Amino acid sequence: MVDLSVQPKRKSKFWLWVLLIIIAAGLTYFILNKDNNTTSDKVIRDSTGVSPVQ
Questions:
Q1: What is the pTM of this model?
Q2: How far apart are CA 54 and CA 51, in angstroms?
Q3: Model confidence over 26-41: pLDDT tens digits?
Q4: Is the dihedral of CA 13, 18, 21, 23 positive or negative?
């Protein structure tokens, strides 16, 4: 009889690396673009507004 050496197919870790790179890129983006407690929705006073006469 012939002895065949059958080895299991290696699973590719391509998707694992893609997922890790996406997570690392997202974390890097949020860390580097921190808002530092400043927001873009601050109420800005209108300096051209007319104040009531007393």
A1: 0.47
A2: 9
A3: 999 988 887 665 555 6
A4: negative
